[in-house]
């Protein structure tokens, strides 16, 4: 076994050559790998470890050092640390396959996960201000914009689901809409009274004027050329309404989806019902929306627990 004589620097050189020649890695990517692996090699050297002496605990300690800077280098964000862990795992796997070492101490070590960044829910009052701002002005466009935002907030639809709607997907008599989510998975979602009224107003007084400029496209939401409204244009509609409403926080289509879910849960909706409305495959995904204030929790506890008021 070459591991008895090969130094860490030699094994690293062989691996980088393998990446360049056999894997055809680009110069920029190879340079990033080199930086990551040289940092790892320095960490091992500081611990007095030869490459064939590394154990899983050493790799775990290095991952911790990447996030905290405990090795005297700059701490890395989860994404950058993840890239570094991917690089060292590839190096260890290569050394095992080449017979340099007898085992792979990195095999069970996983990259650090990024913290989930949740959009902030918009308060009900500010959502109402946003919706009112969308309908300012005359003509078909304000009617369309109000209908779009009412539907997004009233159903929790993704922006792609909303702009992908066809007129036949609407059943305003039954106050429902058929949405097609990821993988074209279909779900039927109830539509609230305000959204129904806004969509009806747009279909009767706004959409015909927009459709006249096109060729009879079946999409619900049309641009001024009679073509389906794009996701980018729908995003712009929201941004313009937010600016007119004087909202200082960042508002995105997903902010409305998050607000829809948060307001339902705060109102007492069951998380599995919200899961169905959002079209999530797993309730675990929905649970990221269950950020409820301490005061709300106290109110639910006080109203529900038999000994709460004792």
From TrEMBL:
Q: Which top-level group of life is the source organism from?
A: Bacteria
What is one process in the GO biological process aspect for this record?
cell division
Query: GO MF terms on file?
Result: DNA binding; tyrosine-based site-specific recombinase activity
Q: Which residues form the active site?
A: 158, 182, 254, 257, 280, 289 (o-(3'-phospho-dna)-tyrosine intermediate)
User: Tyr recombinase domain spans which residues?
Assistant: 117-302
Q: Name one GO cellular component term.
A: cytoplasm
Q: Which UniProt keywords apply?
A: Cell cycle, Cell division, Chromosome partition, Cytoplasm, DNA integration, DNA recombination, DNA-binding
The record, for Pfam families, names: Phage_int_SAM_1, Phage_integrase
Q: Check the record and name the InterPro entries matching this protein.
A: CB, DNA_brk_join_enz, Integrase-like_cat_sf, Integrase_catalytic, Integrase_recombinase_N, Integrase_SAM-like_N, Recomb_XerD, Tyrosine_recombinase_XerC/XerD
The reply on keyword Zinc is no
Subcellular locations according to the entry: Cytoplasm
Q: Where is the Core-binding (CB) domain?
A: 6-96
Q: What function is annotated for this protein?
A: Site-specific tyrosine recombinase, which acts by catalyzing the cutting and rejoining of the recombining DNA molecules. The XerC-XerD complex is essential to convert dimers of the bacterial chromosome into monomers to permit their segregation at cell division. It also contributes to the segregational stability of plasmids.
Subunit structure, as described in the record: Forms a cyclic heterotetrameric complex composed of two molecules of XerC and two molecules of XerD.
Family listed? Belongs to the 'phage' integrase family. XerD subfamily.
Which HAMAP family does the entry link to? Recomb_XerC_XerD (MF_01808), Recomb_XerD (MF_01807)
PANTHER family membership:
PHAGE INTEGRASE-RELATED, TYROSINE RECOMBINASE XERC
**Identification of the protein by name:** Tyrosine recombinase XerD
Organism, by scientific name, is Georgenia muralis
């Amino acid at each position: 076994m070459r591991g008895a004589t090969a130094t860490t620097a030699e094994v690293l050189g062989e691996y980088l050559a393998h990446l360049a020649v056999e894997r055809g890695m680009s110069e920029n990517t190879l340079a990033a790998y080199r930086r990551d692996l040289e940092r790892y090699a320095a960490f091992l050297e500081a611990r007095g470890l030869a490459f064939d002496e590394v154990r899983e605990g050493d790799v775990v300690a290095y991952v911790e050092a990447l996030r905290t800077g405990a090795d005297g280098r700059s701490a890395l964000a989860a994404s950058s640390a993840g890239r570094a862990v991917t690089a060292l795992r590839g190096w260890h796997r290569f050394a095992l396959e080449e017979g340099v070492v007898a085992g792979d101490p990195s095999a069970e070590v996983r990259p650090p996960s990024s913290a989930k960044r949740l959009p902030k829910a918009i308060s009900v009052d500010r959502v109402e201000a946003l919706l009112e701002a969308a309908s300012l002005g005359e003509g078909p466009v304000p009617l369309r914009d109000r209908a779009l935002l009412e539907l997004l907030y009233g159903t929790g639809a993704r922006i792609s689901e909303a702009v992908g709607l066809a007129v036949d997907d609407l059943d305003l008599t039954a106050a429902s809409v058929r949405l097609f989510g990821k993988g074209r998975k279909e779900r039927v979602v109830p539509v609230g009274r305000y959204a129904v009224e806004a969509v009806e107003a747009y279909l009767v007084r706004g959409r015909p004027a927009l459709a006249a400029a096109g060729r009879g496209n079946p999409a619900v939401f049309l641009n001024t050329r009679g073509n389906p409204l794009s996701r980018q244009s729908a995003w712009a509609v929201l941004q313009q309404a937010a600016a007119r409403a004087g909202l200082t926080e960042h508002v995105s289509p997903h902010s409305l989806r998050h607000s829809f879910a948060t307001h339902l849960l705060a109102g007492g909706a069951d998380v599995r019902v919200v899961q169905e409305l959002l079209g999530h495959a797993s309730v675990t995904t929905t649970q990221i929306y269950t950020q409820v204030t301490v005061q709300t929790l106290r109110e639910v506890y006080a109203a529900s627990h038999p000994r709460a008021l004792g």
